[in-house]
Amino acid sequence: MTRIKSITLLFSGAMLLSGAQPLAATPQYFITFGDSYSQTGFDISGTKPNDANPLGNPDLPGWTTSGGLNWIGFLVSESNASTVYSYNLASGGATTDAELIAPWSPEVLSFIDQTSLFSQTLAPKPTWAPWTGDNTLAGVWMGVNDVGNSFWLEDREALIVKVLGRYFEQLQILYDAGVRNFLLLGVPPTEKSPLMLENGEESNKMLAATIEQYNDLISSSMESFKSKNSGVTSWIVDTAPAFNEAIDNPTRYGAPDATCYNEDGTSCLWFNNYHPGIAIHKLVAAEVAEAVGLPWFS
């Protein structure tokens, strides 16, 4: 078999400052988990989210792979219905379980590692984050690296089933700590990224099929999860429409075509050959805001 390019993800994004809008006094909480599509460089031991900077640290837009704000930054600084504090534990390059699908480096925090960090820091509801089940939304955007680092393997279908089992074990940990509101984002059509297009049609059919399986398992597993756990409210957001809107209409979003990339985050749809730029992140944020709505987003 021809060797397929795998993805190795840890990128430095340009840090662009933008002013935070005035916010209300009583916050809602947005606790997020994910990979480089979600990372903002948040250090939970550093400055905590506040009215001036809902990311806490670094300053808006954070350390992202979009060239500016990513979907989380848009949600807490532009699409927020009131004050929304972001506790973002996402780690660039993350997979769900590093023992099942290895990330690019052992230093990357997997979803399991991120959940462990949550359990150590946020689960006790510290004085600096007195969240409750009512005012907190847990957001998870995992899978880009799970599928990107496995889609060519012969046992990929069984492997993805195991991965989603571990994924929902992490949601159970969040539930047991008191989380009741869950936002899950599906894997986008990364076969349309400049990196994966280079692999050719046959490779991308396998990738698309693996993405479909992953996303189907998110939906079916959530139904099972809700049947076992009372009081759960959930939203599953399909990210494909946001990506396809930009990819199908690149000039509408300031790009000359659907495959160019530039770290300014605005002159092309892609920040680099695998990470979407600002326009796609804004479209994803709009999809989430419409789906979830009040009291977090508008």
From TrEMBL:
Matches recorded under SUPFAM superfamilies: SGNH hydrolase
Pfam families per the UniProt record, alphabetical: Lipase_GDSL (PF00657)
Signal sequence interval, chain numbering: 1-25
GO molecular function annotations of the record: hydrolase activity, acting on ester bonds
Domain of life: Eukaryota
Keyword Hydrolase tagged: yes
Keywords assigned by UniProt, alphabetized: Hydrolase, Signal
Keyword Cytoplasm: no
Name of the protein: Acetylesterase
Originating species: Clonostachys solani
Taxonomic placement: Eukaryota, Fungi, Dikarya, Ascomycota, Pezizomycotina
